[in-house]
């Protein structure tokens, strides 16, 4: 596909995503955010880089749960809400790949490479970002009402979702436990704090005020479409 075709398709998909979200949500973003966040506005406490990146991983993990539920539904021949799946894949593209991973690629990876710390890990993580983008492209192509009617496409979609989950669960876990803690060895406290401000500024520029809360609210709405929002449903009933 040429770049004009690709960007037109991207526009159509994004427009579809917004329409899908507003149709299913039926209330302003601020109202969803209120449901997910404490009512009173707390005094501003700075969010430092590792916390920022780790809570973004939290959103990623919630999309992985949605992908897992989509796979389960495909295998059980149950209905998959195509709008919800497209919206989930667009969250990955916009929030994870075009924002979160760009921060890692621009600010973290080069610093680790320059200091020759964890270079093998950084190389794998970087390769996985590229592979993830290819898989997301495939998911976006296959998660349409038309494509989902075809059994072969449903199988290919399930394979792509499984691949994505299989890679990103360990990817995020390794970053949380090895890469991010090692940041404290390479940045001075001042540089570290400064980087946190840069991350916050970038988030505001791209997604506006309360950008993170809006993404959390969106992922919650998609979870509702897939029937996996209620946390209590996952508590095992064990006597005693
Ligand atoms: Fe990463
Ligand atoms: Fe990450």
Q: What do these coordinates show?
A:
This protein has 240 residues and is mainly α. It has one domain (3-32, 48-228): nmb1532 protein domain like (Four Helix Bundle (Hemerythrin (Met), subunit A)), CATH 1.20.120.520. 79% of the residues lie in helices and 0% in strands. It has helices at residues 3-25, 29-36, 49-75, 82-114, 119-142, 145-148, 151-186, 189-207, 211-225. Helix 1 packs across helix 4 (82-114), helix 3 (49-75) packs antiparallel against helix 4 (82-114) and helix 5 packs antiparallel against helix 7. The longest helix has 36 residues, at 151-186. It is globular and about 55 Å long. The termini are far apart. One fe (ii) ion (FE2) binds at residues 101, 104, 125, 129, 171, 175.
Instruction: Report the β-strand fraction as a percent range.
Output: under 5%
CATH class: Mainly Alpha
Q: How many separate domains?
A: 1
Unreliable stretches, pLDDT < 50, 5 or more residues? 1-9, 18-34
Number of strands: 0
Distance between the termini: 59 Å
Count of alpha and pi helical runs = 9
Describe the structure in brief.
This protein is mainly α. Helix content is 79%, strand content 0%.
Q: What key attributes describe this structure?
A:
single chain; 240 residues; mainly alpha; Four Helix Bundle (Hemerythrin (Met), subunit A); 9 helices; binds fe (ii) ion
Structural topology:
Blueprint: H1 3-25, H2 29-36, H3 49-75, H4 82-114, H5 119-142, H6 145-148, H7 151-186, H8 189-207, H9 211-225
Helix pairs in contact: 1-4, 2-9, 3-4, 3-7, 3-9, 4-5, 4-9, 5-7
This protein binds fe (ii) ion (2 copies).
């Amino acid at each position: 596909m040429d770049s004009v075709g690709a960007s037109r398709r991207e526009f159509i998909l994004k427009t579809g995503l917004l329409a899908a979200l507003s149709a299913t949500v039926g209330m302003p973003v601020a109202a969803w955010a209120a449901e997910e966040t404490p009512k009173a506005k707390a005094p501003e406490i700075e969010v430092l880089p590792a916390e920022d990146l780790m809570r973004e991983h939290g959103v990623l993990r919630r999309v992985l749960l949605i992908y897992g539920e989509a796979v389960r539904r495909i295998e059980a021949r149950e209905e998959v809400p195509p709008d919800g799946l497209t919206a989930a894949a667009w969250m990955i593209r916009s929030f994870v790949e075009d924002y979160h991973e760009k921060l890692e690629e621009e600010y973290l990876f080069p610093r680790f490479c320059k200091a020759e710390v964890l270079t093998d890990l950084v190389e794998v993580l970087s390769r996985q970002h590229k592979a993830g983008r290819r898989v997301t492209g495939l998911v976006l192509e296959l998660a349409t009402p038309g494509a989902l009617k075809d059994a072969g496409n449903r199988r290919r979609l399930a394979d792509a979702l499984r691949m994505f989950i299989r890679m990103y669960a360990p990817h995020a876990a390794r970053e949380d436990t090895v890469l991010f803690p090692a940041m404290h060895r390479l940045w001075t406290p001042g540089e570290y704090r400064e980087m946190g401000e840069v991350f916050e500024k970038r988030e505001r520029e791209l997604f506006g005020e309360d950008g993170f809360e809006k993404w959390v609210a969106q992922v919650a709405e998609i979870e509702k479409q897939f029937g996996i929002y209620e946390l209590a449903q996952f508590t095992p009933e064990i006597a005693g």
